[in-house]
Flagellin N-terminal domain-containing protein
Amino acid sequence: MLINKSMYPVKAGYSAISTMQGQLGKLQTQLGSGDKAQTLAEMGFDRTVSLATRNRLTKLDSFAANIDTVNLRLNFLDQGFTSLAKLKSETRTSATPTSYGENNLTMVSLQKDSQNRLSQLLETLNLSVAGRYLMGGNQTDKAPVATYDQIMYGEGTADGYLKVAEERRKADLGADSSDTLDNVGLPRTTVLGPWKNKLVISSAEFERFGYKITSISGNSATTQTSGPTAEPLAPTVQVSTQPADGDVVTFNMTRRDGTTQTFTAKAVAPPAVPDTSATPPEYSIGATLEDTAGNLENLMGQKLGNLENFKIFTSSDADVKVISYSDGMDSVSIKFDKQPADGETLTIGIKDRNGVTTDFQFKAVTGTPDPLATNPREYQIGVNREETLKNLKGAIETSVGGLDAPLKTGRLTAGTMAAPNDTTVRLEEQSPPTIFGYKLASASTTSSKINVSAVAGNPANMSVEFMGNPRAGESVTINLKMPDGTSTPIVLQAVDREPVTGQFVIGATPEETTANFEAALKLKLDQTSKTELVSASSYAAADDFFTTDGVARRLDLSGGDPETATVFAAPNTRETVKWYVGEIGTAGDNPRLSATAQVDDSTKVGYGVRANETGLRELVKTLAAMSSQEYDINDTTSKARFSAMVERQMATTSSSTATAKGSIEQIGLELGVVRATTGGASERNTAASGQLETLLSQVETVSMEETVMQLLALKTRLEASYQTTATVANLSLVNYLK
């Protein structure tokens, strides 16, 4: 306690009291505010520590704000990419090749399902948060991707994907060929019967050209006609081992109306004369297997009438049976019981793709047929029924074979070379060269009688030479490069029976086999073009439309129609919707860096996404291509196209694509790393902030308990000083003497 020993220390006392009052006021202020000082000057040397600490805390606060913003956007992106990954998985598993579903439901619904998925995908790519679009790179003020309707159907005068795909399909398929049915080995005709007196005309392959056999007429005392029907025709007895005298055979038969009947016959050996009235009726064992078969067939005809009335024959003897022709297609049959009469006619009706039916008439003549007579077309009555039927077969093949058979060969031409190279079929790319359609890759054969060679170049060509007849089962394989970069093999197998698509009949001579191979090659090219090539073209069109910069590649149509186009037009010369209008970026750059944020002193995270990244763009292309294909159950190409499209869909969405740069899975993983990085930075920043707050508290704030104690102690001193000063101030001689 400061009490001056001087008798009259009033001034010094007042000064001490004033100082203590100042200290008291300061302590009261500290007690009220909790701060050690109200100004930087009052802080003394601590002000440097305070300023540095507060500056650091401000910086950490800005990092925290950045992290909050990034996490908000990452939350939306995480939801978006979870949805995209699920969408990709659904697309991959939505269908499998050749699995058409019950009543073909999976096939016919695939287009609509793909359209719905594409619409969902485009909405996700236009994801926004508080007016900021998240998948346009650094272009955040507008939707990066056009709408579904704009992309598919176009807008105003600008074309959409469907128009681009239609033009590309026409360019890849090329113009129709000028072939006729005869050029492709049609109609398919088969001669049957022990005496080669039965002829079946099949409508196999007719449907691809829009033709249909609608009728046949001409029944007479000499001729029987049947069909059209897809059920078995031209039942013929076939004997593989001569029966012994007295052998009995029983046939269980089903008529076309579904009723059944049983017939039993007994074989007798010459010189015995068979008794057709016996029970069972008898037939003669002939000199040859064919004679025996003919004798039994005659007996069955006598007892049962027209065998065409039956569709199923089951024999008790494996060496004696009845066979019929059936390829599952509508067919008609003609049987000469006897030689036809001069002038006798028969008629076959064929309906074309426009619904118009043409009646093809054929007239039997004893003399030389008139080459100018086309309807009825004349055929000569031969020395026996076999020869007559052969002449009729030739007349039918000439008349019906003259019908147009336009083929799609994908800008390739195939044909037999002129003599003396008429055992060689040449397949070549279009000249002048074009970038559309098939490209010849390679060829091989399993036959030593066939030589295949290829000439590279632009255009390239291949040759298939028949040095002899191949054996049944041997084949030729031609590998074709498709417009979407995939490869498809065309395999043609030699057979010694009625062929199906992808097979050619071994002829009597190499020249005949060559002609059959050419016909089979053209049919296979046409089938492949309308299925595999159409599918590949849809995906190629998606490549053309969904480019990285959004500018579609369009056909140069200055020379005419898409079928004759050979190159692409210059960019932006044809109005087309831009599917993507966000940041394009440069080759090799990191799209994540199109949006960045500083989360601590040394860490900057990138969380940008561009809708044109490889994985996202591939899914858009796949779903757009799938959305463009319709699968009508009445279209004979639907199932093969469905399988070809689904194969490509499965390839572009397979799990193996997850490791590719820019895949949906990779982008999601990279954004996950960003979230982990921001989480780590947030934890570090929070810890640092706590330490700095403690330091700042030590520098700037006071201890309330200590301040209260100091305040009470100072108050006691000040009260004592007041009392002492007042007492001293009142000291005088008068007061002393009192």
Summary: Residues 407-542 form one domain. The longest strand covers residues 260-268. Residues 1-8 have pLDDT under 50 and may be disordered.
